[in-house]
Design a protein that fits this description.
Blueprint (H helix, E strand, L loop, with lengths): L3 E3 L7 E3 L11 H25 L51 E9 L2 E9 L6 E11 L5 E11 L4 E11 L5 E9 L3
């Protein structure tokens, strides 16, 4: 078994491993030198890696062309605000554009209880018959989102006017909302 046995006189013999004499020379010196060598190799490897990916300025006559070329951009100037007044030289004509924004008057959009209704008067000031689209919207004041909307089409002869109404188009509270209305001309 390669080891000695301890005999106590009672029971089985227990083997004792054989003892080997230790080398008394300083065995730490070769390990320190090995560690120092590995540290030096690691330092050199890190230095080599750090130098690998770094760009360096080159000569203008290098064979590699630049990857991005951006031409000089013009300077952006502020737009001068214009007056909102209509140009008097532009009049509605046969077959021309007709501005319906002033065609709706006497507008009322409010709830009776929780039921919202819209009323107003629509006038066609053009020399042609038009079909108008009248719309009422209820918007939430908190985020400007639309709670409800309703549109109706109204046909008016040239120079005619008529009352318009959109009854009970939304059910909801008066608080926190706003009613807006508008009018457009169909087909223009």
């Amino acid at each position: 078994m390669g080891g000695a046995h301890l005999a106590t006189g009672k029971g089985p013999h227990v083997p004792i491993p054989a003892r080997h004499p230790r080398v008394l020379a300083d065995s730490r010196a070769p390990r320190s030198a090995a560690r120092a060598g590995r540290a030096l190799a690691l330092g050199l490897a890190l230095t080599a890696l750090a130098a690998c990916g770094q760009p360096t300025p080159g000569n203008p006559d290098d064979s590699v062309a630049p990857t991005v070329s951006v031409p000089a951009q013009p300077t952006i100037t502020a737009e001068t605000p214009t007056d909102d007044a209509a140009d008097p030289s532009v009049e509605p004509t046969d077959g021309g554009l007709f501005d319906a924004s002033s065609s709706l008057s006497g507008v009322s959009c409010e709830p009776t209880g929780d039921s919202w209704s819209f009323t107003g008067t629509l006038a066609n000031s053009d020399t042609e018959e038009h079909t108008f689209t009248v719309a009422a919207f209820v918007l939430k004041l908190s985020d400007g989102s639309q709670a409800a909307s309703k549109e109706i089409d109204v046909k008016l002869a040239a120079g005619a006017s008529a009352p318009v109404a959109i009854r009970d188009f939304w059910t909801g509270p008066k608080a926190g909302v706003e009613c807006l209305s508008g009018v457009t001309v169909k087909g223009l």
